[in-house]
Amino acid sequence: MLDGALTSLQHQSLPADQYEILVIDNASTDDTAEVVKRHQAWSSRIRYFYEPKLGISNARNRAIAEAEAPIIAYTDDDACADAGWLEAVLAAFTRTAQRPLAVGGRIALGWGSLKRPRWLPDTGLLTLGSLDHGDASIPCRYAYDLFGSNLAFERAYLAASGGFNCRLGRTGANLISGEETEMLARLHADGGLLLYEPAAQVTH
What we know:
The protein is α/β, with parallel strands linked by helices. It has helices at residues 2-10, 32-40, 56-66, 85-94, 155-160, 179-189; strands at 21-25, 46-50, 71-75, 80-81, 102-108, 138-139, 150-154, 194-203.
């Protein structure tokens, strides 16, 4: 799945000189490094970092430390970004009167060779990571209105706030989550704008 994620990130409508791709290898024991090397062979925009301390919050915080751009957009290794993903994220940060501190987008479910089970109701899609608040760009009222597999922040805010809470977030077989919700709650409490942008879509 990482191969597909990297391919989607290298075929963005945003000009190549306006973004970089960071891969944070969070203590993996598979062929992650080899997959990244294959992509690096024809793309200098991909930077690889091995983070030995297990946990998604540690990985997210390593990205904050290593990123060079003022906006950092997170997605997962099992998600593919639409071609216009980064362009839509950047536009959302720059076109509103009040500049948001966080932007999240639509998350579609990719079933691959499978089909959606007939017994699965629409209300069950949320638990699989689906997110769709409609076709309009809207401010979010709650921290849980956005999901971490499609979420971008002002990097300076993340750094100043101390990053993601390492007591939260999936760590190995421990499936506790909520690190992005806790971060968004802090941001919201500080008066920051959280924005939903439907044009910024990934398929998870």
